[in-house]
Amino acid sequence: MNRKLVTAVMVLSLLLGAGAMYVGLQVFGDSPVSTTTSPNSSNENSNAKKEKEVVINVDEQMKKIQQAFELISTEYVEQVDQMELIEGAIQGMVSTLEDPYSTYMDKDTAEQFTQSLESSFEGIGAEVGMQNGKVTIISPFRDSPAEKAGLQPNDQIIKVDDEDIAGLDLYQAVLKIRGEKGTVVKLEVERPGVNESFVVNVTRDTIPLDTVYSKTFEQDGKTIGYIQITSFAQETSADFQDQLNELEKSGIDGLIIDVRGNPGGLLDQVQTISSEFITKDKPYVQIEQRNGEKQRYFSSLTEEKSYPIVALIDKGSASASEILAGALKEAGGYDIIGEASFGKGTVQQAVPFTDGSNIKLTRYKWLTPDGNWIHNDGVTPTIEVRQPDYFYASPIVLEDGEELVFDSNNEKVKNVQVMLRGLGLEPGRADGYFSKQTEEVIRQFQKDKGISVTGKVNSETAELIQTDLLEAVRAEENDAQLQEAIKVLGR
Asked: Global pTM?
């Protein structure tokens, strides 16, 4: 197997466009950097609460399943596909777990995903999961088509190209979302806190495998190093180490580690990176099995870095990102800046079957150094900083021929007003009422852009507003969380 394919297989869960979705920390490292069990592990084992087991006669129950299979196969009013019955039975078992991260992929679906990996990584660039029966955005990748289109964590996709995807499993839905670079997929989305669903057109693109980016900032005579990790793929820890070495050679006075919008990835990669900063005095993560037994993971590091460190997180930081943030916060004592993270505290493993199908099954919980399980709650920052309101604005979605005009009052107008304020323009209000002042601001915007001056928001005006807003969001000076981190380290 060539290196490209090996890398592709390892990041199968990271790239929705590559033909898969990230389902969690699905690879449990066989060779962690340094591991040890808790000194009290024997006591923990002996005192662990015994699992309540219901004794059943497995042979009898399997006969029951076979009887149901034969009954439906031979007596149902219409001809049925026996393989579909078997696949459905497996799907049914997995679905009873009510776990969005445990999933089954049949042979045909698995083949489609695997075939797409060898040639390209193309799609919208987002991690998705199944929550409350709906395909849900966990996190769009930084600079991905999904992020540029305005998709946000917790957005729920209900239709793909006008087709209702209710009833599809996660893999089936993803196969409809992914596609070739340059093609457009139409997604109908429900967003918490927004009354009506809206449509987002996302132009698929190639999703890069590079996961680590670095630079420096100057603040009050100090050089601040910055490393962004977009996901934890196979080469992430090696790339991180190389770029950290370069920053340290340049003589940095502090370091920012940015895992905002990072959906997670491979456990062994975050283990290696955590071991760069967390000394051997405390574990950087704990793994808990179903019987309550915990294994604590330690580094061999004897001295902490000579410079201060802060980490950036947001609601799109999930899984492995949260392991790193939790380690830096609880074991390293470093500041975590931003918003509470997503809250995924489980570990999955892929278990293949001989026919090519597989189950990704949640097998462990992971705990922070202090033993906290952050599932559903996330890692809480030590310094909470929310981005400006326009960072969270929903896309402006207009039907064919629709315009927003004076005296209208709705959620779309409110969204436009929030965006205008983000561009430094003052619409007079941001409650959704299209006032005269809002109309005048639109007129001035249209005049500045050299388009027809009507004072109405049509599709052309909406697109230009959103394009300018994206540039404003990308501007480092507008990034309140980043600026706070630079300020903290520049003191």
From this structure: 0.80
